[in-house]
Amino acid sequence: MLKLLFLVFISWVQLIGAVVPDCKSGTIIFDPPLDRSTVTWYPRNFTNNAPLYPNNYNCTYQKNSRTSSSNSEFFYFIANGGKLKLSTGVTSANFGFSVLWKQYDNPTYAHKYHVSKSEAVPFSYDLYGNKPIVVEAETRVSATILPVNRYKTQYLRGIIYLDGPNFTSPCLGTGLQLLNGNTQFVSKGNFLTVLILGNSGSNPLLLFNDFYNMNGIKRFEAIQCDAICSEMKIDASKGRSVFQVDNGKSQYILQKMTGFGKLDVYAGNLTPEKRNLIASYDIQGWFTTFVMESGNCTISQTNSDAYSLNIDYGRKGIITSAEYGTSWKIQDVVTKMYAPGNAKFQYSVKSVDLKTWDSLEVVGRNDQQVTFRQK
């Protein structure tokens, strides 16, 4: 049961000198005060300078929450409590925290969504606000999460995944556990509930699929970067590994790959029938999934517009509509390819997957002036 939260604020600010507490038993226990509107400080009565802990000081701080309660901060623990462990090692450190127990009222309303086996694009929920969500699947619900900027990662602790259709369902874990575990949370039945606790300013992208499409995946990777992206290593030596990319803000360009094995690229979501399978170096669409069937490889990519303006050509890729492989009636895509000044290049089209009324049009421009048009 998840009904109470308490807030733990870890303070590395300099606090008023307080005596370093004795921790001979190895554990210091904190029980909720009678007046939960008051803040519990540790150590007692400090405001500016935290006490300096000696070398090799070890202590566990246990926060107790009564049944049907959990705690909240930058840290959220499900009842009946959680622990913080301080270990200074060979370096002394200033340390202190405050605790505020706060009642968490069960929400009366939740946003409801549905995912199906036939969807070639995962349902993505760009978290804003703190309304809970309930996701229903045809078989079982698969949940993954994309990373956020590093300084916002702490807020993922406040995203609680519950295995079932309501707020008393068993807890699967937090958003941070899901991200750090490189895994997926899978419901036992058709429903999965997500509670959003505390500060929702992290705006992570929550992803949901029908487990029919995600069955057999051993490891999940994802990326969040601005312009320059770090290398992503995909290891499928112990089973299929998935690398998920959100192209919502800009397209990602695959610069190079090293390694061995088989790498499939899907426009959107992984589908067992492979109806939206592509092989791409210039990746389009709202969402992209790389599936490493075996072996391992390293991928370098960028989403910097400046990359298109260098003279190094000899590239190839596939351009697809964001809904490629789905039954959407309206599908279109517009792609712009830039060249440096005074550069000349030529292109060739290997194959085009067009239906009855579809067409491909290529327009060349020098600045704003149209120099050629082919359809």
Automatic annotation (TrEMBL):
Residues 1-18 form the signal peptide. PANTHER family: CUB-LIKE DOMAIN-CONTAINING PROTEIN-RELATED, PROTEIN CBG15905-RELATED. The lineage of its organism: Eukaryota, Metazoa, Ecdysozoa, Nematoda, Chromadorea. This is Protein CBG15905. Residues 114-197 form the DUF7592 domain. The keyword Signal applies. Residues 21-62 form the CUB-like domain. It holds the Pfam family DUF7591. InterPro entries: CUB-like_dom, DUF7591, DUF7592. It comes from Caenorhabditis briggsae. Keywords: Signal. The keyword Membrane does not apply. Residues 213-303 form the DUF7591 domain.
